[in-house]
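pinning this so it doesn't scroll away 📌
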Amino acid sequence: MKTVALVGHCGPDATLLRLAVQRAVPGITIAMANDDEAVRQHVKDGNALLVNRKLDGDFSANDGIELIQSALKGRKDLVVMLISNYEDAQKEAESAGARKGFGKSRVYAPETAELLKTALTG
């Protein structure tokens, strides 16, 4: 089973996502990544990344899309999803190589649980 890194999320959003991920994939390990070094370590370890569109933390990237582009550079094996309610941002993340993500407004929707389960266990 993989570790999932919640990248650039504030405390309340991280709690919301942690609960959603644990419901979809019970027993999975969840970690926080709120700076570049933590992201590099999770990428090196091959962990899944759930990246916030607007990063909260100490990152050199301007936003989650830029971070996804950097993280996926040369890595086809990583599971990376953008967390955003904006469809244009989701399309941009998918164009950069991320899997289909979801917005916080849909975090507890059945299709979100299915997305997470497929991405994190398949």
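📌 and the second one:
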Amino acid sequence: MATAIWSGAVLARSDGNELVESNVYFQPASLDRRYFRDCNWHSHRPWEGDTSYCDIEVNGAVSPAAVCIRDYAAFWNGVEVME
């Protein structure tokens, strides 16, 4: 089971994830949505397709642009992912 943690909060926990280029991608249902805020940052990559980004907010602290990719979510910028 993979778990994504930032600032002491569990952002996602799932057995049904995908590993792509050393990044763990979490299913949408595994995300604790209370910590996510939409932002207006989008990109397109050939292998990912259209990508939207979210900010993570825990107790007033914000980690910008956690990547949300094709119905799965991957994390970066200080988010710890453990398996």
